[in-house]
Amino acid sequence: MSPEQTTVLLVEDEALFSMALTAMLQDNGYRVLTASTGEQGLEIATGSPAVNLVLMDVELGPGVSGIDAALALQATRALPVVFLTSHNEKEMFDRVRSVTRYGYVIKNMGMHVIISSIEMALELFEAHRKTRESEERFRALSETLQAKNRLISGIFDTQRQTMTSLENLLNALPDGLSVLSPEGVHQKVNPALCRITGFTEEELIGVGPPHPYWAPEAYGEIEKVFKKTLAGSFATWELTFMRKSGERFPALVSPSELRKENGEVLHYVALVKDNSELRQTEEEFKIFFDNAPVGKSITSPDGPLLRVNEAFASMLGYSLEEMQHLSFQELTFPEDLPETTECIRTLMAGEQDVWNMEKRYIHRDGHLVWAHVTTRLQRDLQGKPLYFLTHVQDISRRKEAEEKLLALNDELQRSNHELEQFAYVASHDLQEPLRMVSSYTQLLAQRYESLLDQKGRDFIAFAVDGANRMQQLIHDLLLYSRVTTRGEAMAPLDTHLPLGDAVKNLQATIRETGAMVTNEELPPVFGDRTQIMQLFQNLIGNSIKFRRPGEPPRVQVSAGRFSRESRLCLFKVSDNGIGIEPEYVDRLFVIFQRLHTRKEYPGTGIGLALCKRIVNRHGGSIWLESEPGRGTTFFFTLPAAGAVKGEKS
Amino acid sequence: MSTPVKGDCIDILLVEDNEGDARLAMEALSDSKIRNRLYHVSDGEEAMAFLLRHGAWADAPRPDLIMLDLNLPRKDGRQVLAELKAHDTLMTIPVVILTISDDEADILKSYSLHANCYITKPIDFNQFMRIVRSIEDFWLTIVKLPRGTEEV
Predict the structure, then answer these.
(1) Who among B18, B124, B126 is closest to A432 (CB)?
(2) What pLDDT does residue B147 have?
(3) Rounded Cα gap, residues A388 and A375, in angstroms
(4) Which pLDDT band holds residue A281 (cuts at 50, 70, 90)?
(5) What number is the ipTM of this complex?
(6) Which residue in chain B has the smallest CA separation from A465?
(7) Across-strand partners of A626?
(8) Residues with Cβ < 8 Å from A242, sequence gap 6 or more?
């Protein structure tokens, strides 16, 4: 560095010396800045980057000493400091040396010494700077190197880990794995292969073909596969392998190869799976499927039967072979195809897991076979539909029985209806001639009374009585048959109305016998008003008729719902009459059955049979409880008005 | 005191296939205070022939009252009633339906065909006699009827 480019900061409190030194430095080509105190020098040195060197007087009078100022300055920037001093004691040298490496000048040693000291200090400083720079570079370089080292050792770690993972993977693999040399010699085997074959790692490593686990009888086949593999043809083969114990087992073997970059084969890798368990499961499934006593099929979503069992084939009269060429569309009765299609759609859409239906198949000979069919859709792990698993149960016999039952039921209803019609017409037509018998007998009695004796008049009386009773029977029979043939439409009904009608019709008898008929609040029912009136009339009439001598009849009508939800109302008609012996109770509701002679209690014996018929027509039942000599309670049920209409009560 | 519509003799046409019932009706009317002639025909065809004075009935009188059964051979009583009530002059003759049927449908049908009244034959002999007499009494002595015309 030449003096022209060098700026010297002179910190000197002695003004005269400062001026002289400045002039001398300027004469030597230096630019000079001056400061008279340590503080001022510090300020200029830190604020002016141009300053290249500081000439610092050690004794600066009051304030900061030259040495402290230099220490403070060096803390902010690297600058060479040359001290000026008037002393030459050793103590002073030691002090100054601890602060600067750039030396000191005794003031009175002459100006040229000062100049030389400045030049030397600058050169020293430059040398220091260069050293520092190269140190910096070296440090940076070594840091980079260290980083690279770390990176490299990291890579080695990862590789080590990968190797360990691979090793673990091989050890954990449930299937056997061997790494073979291009010649087929075992280089590495995993524990599973040892477990499956029963040979130890030592027994296998280094051993070439034939391998100890090849079953001798299968050598030919295995060698063929081996050759194919060497020729570069890879597939999965089922081979017969042998355990160390000599036990044979089916093995699924999948060979593959590893090649170098130049295409040369490095290794063969063979995956060996013990297939015996799967084969057993398959075998069991086959037996379960093929020998099942009910029809089973596996059907492709688009129709073809992939597999069916014997039971299904024979149900439809086909052989297993023939069934393979048929689709469910061809086998299904056309009328039942829409439901079958709907089943497929629903299962494919995943709206339902299982579909149950009753459908008809077409037997090979053309007749229909009724079957109960349960189908589910099998999907793969991704949810893609694979095939339908169908379970087919022949219900032809049940259906046949059902149809027979229905036909029988129809027949029964028709015959019942005919019978009712017959009873109605018969009794209707019977009345006509009977009326003739009765009428002309009476006409005879009236017109020819004077010509007859007492005997003749008695005979006529018997004839008339017989005809009258016959008429009553026919009348009652007509009523009985009309319960179902001429019944009126049922409707919700205030039960007090038919009860009121019944009591009104019985008014004469009630008055005559001094009977008292009372009733509680009755629930509304769903029924035929006329018939329910008849029901009350017969029951109340019965109670009055079978009263105890000397006891005015008391009849109480009450009712209640079994429960809020019940669709039936229970009614009770209780009396204080003569009661009924338990042994007769069963005969009571049978038509024309009488428990008393006509002399004791007149009547045709149809009243209770009619009650039963009316209650039955309403879907109810009738029964009784009785204590002979105390009274009888008739119970019957009728549909509640709300229950049938479905309204809230 | 009522007066018979023509002269002192009343003509009644009884349409009844049951001979026994016809005879009973005759017996009942034979005791009547009112002088009457009872004409009996036993099927619907013959009834119409009588009323329209066809064939053997060319000289038949116009009846003052018709007692008509419903269930008749050949032409049904309901058909006879319909034809009669659709006829210009015959329609004014009172028709009493006297039948064994107490079927609501028959009753409704008869009145809608303008029957003048509907009576179910009572089963009891004495009641039957009483009813036949009261029919005659009511329709021929109590009820005022338009004058019959001889033109048919």
Answers:
(1) B18
(2) 64
(3) 6
(4) confident
(5) 0.72
(6) B124
(7) A632
(8) A197, A213, A214, A215, A216, A248, A249
